[in-house]
Amino acid sequence: MRMSTWIRQHLAALRALLVLTVITGIVYPAVVLGVSQIPGLKDKADGSLLTRDGKLVGSSLIGQAFTDGKGNALVQYFQTRPSNSAPADGSIPDGYDPTNTSFGNMGPESVVDTLDATDPKKDKLSLLSTVCSRSQAVGQLEGVDGSRPYCTSGGVGAVLAVMGDRDSHGLVTHPTQVISVNETCSTDVKNPAKPFQDAYEGVKVECAKRGEDYSAGQIVPIRGDASSDTPVPTDAVTASGSGLDPQISPEYAAIQVARVARARNVSTDQIRALVDAHRSGRVLGFMGEPTVDVVELNYDLDSKYPFKG
Known about the structure:
Elements: H1 5-36, H2 42-45, E1 49-52, E2 55-59, H3 127-142, E3 159-166, E4 172-184, E5 199-200, E6 203-208, E7 218-221, E8 247-248, H4 250-254, H5 257-264, H6 268-277, E9 279-280, E10 291-293, H7 294-304
Parallel strand pairs: 4-6
Antiparallel strand pairs: 1-2, 3-4, 3-7, 5-6, 8-10, 9-10
Helix pairs in contact: 5-6
């Protein structure tokens, strides 16, 4: 008895399903698992985990924050780059939540802060002000100059909104009012806050008022006198795309050596040698930039030069 075409087609499909299930669901995973257990690959396949006294302390592939419960840097450790990966409830103030990786989604035109009308804690900082404040904080922690172009001494973006008549190109030709959009004035009569710049084209610069919309003005960033050759490198003030990078640049590591050596009561040469030991070059000699793995470096620090604070 000949089987119908419909039955033959379905039997062929069933055989193909069984064969492919065995190959892709059993044989292939088994081969990959076997290869991953080869000496030299096993550690990486298992997640490059770091343990101390039998306790898991991290992975050399995933960054973590070396701060106290309030987000303050622990001086005995090298600090990682900022992270945007953080839960909405703020339970991990410095990010590095591997279950919530994210990026900042702000570009070079993000220069104006949103100042909440009632609560300063609800302010939304622009990328420029975020970089300015981080650079200032890093400079204070490491004892270097954290000033940057287009940043005020108060650590926000040096940006003006210029009001007045515009020409055919949309540029203000005769300013009538100028506001420092990222600065609010203090109400303390004994120590009133002043804008970072007194005047712009003969017009007095005013501080911003919370809740006010200055989008009608021409936005003018002011470069200032700070050198573009700042000792605080870019990766110290910007987050990575994943928010979980464990590496920093050798330049960022270099400005932290003195602080870590002082905290652990060892010489800077000893700390610098350890940094060099954890430095990696460009991939294949030409891709990317040299890096220092902070997680592995701090793990090694605790092993060789324990903190006795």
